[in-house]
Amino acid sequence: xxxxxxxxxxxxxPTLKLNEAARLLRSRGEPVIHLGAGEPKNxxxxxxxxxxxxxxxxxxxxYAPTAGIPSLKKAIVRYMEExxxxxxxxxxxxxxxxxxxxxxxxxxxxxxxxxxxxLLAPYWVSYPEMVKMCYGTxxxxxxxxGTFLPRMEDIERAVSSYTKAIILNSPSNPSGLxxxxxxxAEIVEFCERKDIYLILxxxxxxxxxxxxxxxxxxxxxNKDIENTKLIVVNGVSKVYGMTGFRIGWAxxxxxxxxxxxNIQAQTTSCASVISQAAAEGALTGxxxxxxxxxxxxxxxxDVMMQELKTFNGVRVTKPDGTFYCLPDxxxxxxxxxxxxxxLLKKAxxxxxxxxxxxxxxxxxxxxxxxxxxxxxxxxxxKWALDPESPNEIYIGDRKLIRDWL
Length: 405
Fold this sequence. Notes:
Layout: H1 5-8, H2 14-27, E1 33-34, H3 46-58, H4 70-84, E2 93-96, H5 99-110, E3 116-120, H6 126-133, E4 137-141, H7 152-158, E5 163-169, H8 181-194, E6 197-201, E7 230-235, E8 248-251, H9 254-265, H10 273-284, H11 288-309, E9 324-325, H12 336-347, E10 349-350, E11 352-353, E12 363-366, H13 371-385, E13 392-395, E14 398-401
Parallel strand pairs: 1-10, 3-4, 3-5, 5-6, 6-7
Antiparallel strand pairs: 2-8, 7-8, 9-12, 11-12, 13-14
C-alpha cells in the first residue's frame, strides 16, 4: 500500500493509544487503573440530555448550517458576554466537531508552507502534529529554569519573520499550571504589536482551583474583535464532561470565520445537530454542574498531591486547574515512554509519557477518575518503582511480589 510521506510523518496520538490499551486490558478482565484519562466521570448535564433527546424524537435529523445552528450560536454569544465580558456577533464564531477541529480549522486557514507556530512546552500532544499537517513548522519554547512557565524573553527570541501564531493553553494540559495575568498581558501586547496570531485554547478555563480565575486575554487589548490578533477556542467537552458529544467553537474576526466555514464545509460539512442541541442545553441550563465538577476535581487534585508527597524521588508542581499533573520521574527513568510501558505491564496503571508533551522524564497523571483510583494507582506506581515501598501488593485478587529492585 502506498501511503503519502506527509501522512507518515504524523505521530500517533499517545493518549488515544493508551485509552485503547486500557480498554483491551479491561475487556480481558484485568484490574487496570487509568491515570491517563482526559475526561471526567460525571454524567452529562440533564439539560444537555433532555435537549438532545427532544431533537432526536422529532426525527428531523438533517444537515445544519456549516458554522452552527443559530440557537447554539446565540447561546455561545451569551457565554462570551458572561464569561469573557466580550460582545461578539454570531458571524464571529464557528461551531465544529470539538475544539480539536476548531484548532485544526484555524491552523489550516492561517499556516502556509514554512510558516512557524510557537508552542510553549509542555504543550498538548496534538499541537505540533496539527501544525505539521498544515505544512507548518512547530517551534518549541522550553523553560530553562525547570518550571513549566516560559519567560517572555524566551518567546521573543523564538519569533522569526516566519512566525504566524503562538498557541497558549491555560490552564495547561498536561501540567495544570495557569499563566499569570502579567504574562497574559505581556504576550497579548507582544502579539498585537508584532501582528502575530495568539490562539487561546481555553477548553479548561473554568476548571480552576483554590479561588483563582483564568485571566481573560481580551482584557489586555484595546482592539475590537475584527482587528485583534486574538482567537479563542472553547467547547463543552471538559467543563461539562461532554467529551463524546464533540462540540467546540472558535471566536475570531469575520473574514477568518468565513475561511474556516469554507474549510469545514469541504470536510465535515457541519457538527451533528443532536450534539449541537446537547451543547445548547448545557450552555443555557443550570450552571451549578460546572461548580460541582470543579469541586470534585479539586478534591481529587488534593488527594493526588498528598499521595505524591510521600513518593520518594518524585517532584511535582501543584496544578492550578485541569485534570492533570506532570510529575518528574527522572530519578527512576529518563525515558518516559519506557517508564509508562513498564508501569502498565508491571502495575496495570495507565500513565501518559511526558515526551510527546515536550517534557521527557515526566509522566502525565490524571485525577479525573475516582479518589480510589488515585490512591490505589499511586500505591501501585510506588510499589513498582520505590525500593522503600512494601515488596508485596494485591492487584485485583492476585498477590504480586516485586523482584526487580
